[in-house]
Amino acid sequence: MTGTIAVGSSDVKSAARPTAANRALSGPRVSGRVVMMTLYLLFLMLPIYWLVNMSLKTNMEITSGLTLWPRDITFDNYVKIFTDESWYSGYINSLTYVIINTVLSISFALPAAYAFSRYRFLGDKHLFFWLLTNRMAPPAVFALPFFNLYSAIGLFDTPWAVALAHCLFNVPLAVWILEGFMSGVPREIDETAAIDGYSFPHFFVKIFMPLIASGIGVAAFFCFMFSWVELLLARTLTSVTAKPIAATMTRTVSAAGMDWGLLAAAGVLTIVPGALVIWFVRSYIAKGFALGRV
Amino acid sequence: MTKTVNNKAWFFVLPVFAIVAFSAVLPLMTVVNYSVQDTFGNNQFFWNGIGWFQELLDPSSQLGEQFLSSLMRTLLFSFIILLIEVPLGIAVALSMPREGWTVALCLVLMALPLLIPWNVVGTIWQVFARGDIGLLGWVVNRLGIDYNYTGDPLDAWVTIIVMDVWHWTSLVALLCYAGLKSIPDAYYQAARIDGASRWAVFRTIQLPKMRRVLLIAVLLRFMDSFMIYTEPFVLTGGGPGNATTFLSIDLVKLALGQFDLGKAAAMSLVYNLIILAICWVFYTVMTNVDAGRERVEA
Which of A50, B91, B97, B277 is most buried, judging by how many CB atoms fall within 10 Å of its CB? Predict the structure, then answer.
């Protein structure tokens, strides 16, 4: 009995020291961390708040003096965007090429990423490097030749031109992310499935893809993101019928001066799709930004 | 993990190879083609050899001087950006809440600037920093500081840098956060038992574990800031004067503004070669880190 008590008390002692150290470590840190995080988030949100704030004001109110919140809230700017076809078609155009691009990138990248993660083949390293260099090529370099190329094959001013052009950096990125996630799946699964008599396509679709579902989600998120935010190529490759929203926004400069409220409302609406998509992948976002390689 | 040698894997890679080659090789050949020719218009081209390259790399010519100064501006910009964003990103990642609903909230809010189209980022700051209708410009002017980003080169630089910090620090923070999440609790417990200080925990546990993601962060940030176009173009249009004309702005002006194909093409190639060189360093370092890790794990 005394033995156990002694052991117990020594346990308490040894446990007490680290807890004290722990408290010393985390005591002042907690408040510091909260302050840091709050300040940072405030810094991030202020400009966005200002945009939302402006979008709910009339141009009169915007130009007549600084107000921290709209005095009389108006939704006219949003109504105008949703009722004027030349405005809302911009959103439809943008979403069209973004979705085409995401589907193309993922479906092309899946088999390639599998090959890179499972096999060694002639020129694999060089090929992978070459793919990555395209992710890093400045779009400014490609603007003019893309314009020539897509005009020549008759795709100019269609969503396909922009979707294909964005594949230049999205396909390598998707291969990169998917390869990272696939390498985390043990090879034994492939072998077991083969022994169990699954054909390769059956195995890939029914067994392998569900295993890397989060990776596919993250890769799709990134393709969506980079295609959605890119403007230089999208603007160069379209003129009227496939004009992206980002290019439509320049219309707010008119002879009567700048239509600030409308510009702000259009800006706010471009943030919405991104915010929705982030919400769906929030649990995987950190791993995704590390390209599946943590 | 040892991989089996199988050249049939090429069939899996072929579609990717085809689609990227279509988008990359053909345009690149066009650029090479333009870079060695000159034109008098009317689609009549003649051979110019390495003339454009000589002019571009000769700082005494007008084109060369312009190129060199935009290159220096771009390098300076990338350097300042890294100097601010990397430490700030680490600090933010360390400040992330450990658990609870606030984690998801912080992640979503942090990622928000990353998903805003780049020209809208420019627009947001264009409005936000204006002295008359923007909160930032108004407050700074009220504090008695003469601030006008469209007129004063230094103010323009500060605005662009703050904008980029706002836009991209979250990327560094999210990467570091991913690295921090991969540290097993046992490491922290061991540090507690040893009575390690906060700084010692950071130096010996957290920083080494973040090394890999930090590398990705630094190189992604370097390359993306080196290619920056849309945001400064919307915000300042490269001005005042040429104060914020970065390489890509210069290039687009040459190519699509003045339609100076030969010069623009030569510039594209040199620009691309610089990026390629950096990219190669990136890839070599990454694969070495990978190899090192596999050796340790084996």
Answer: A50
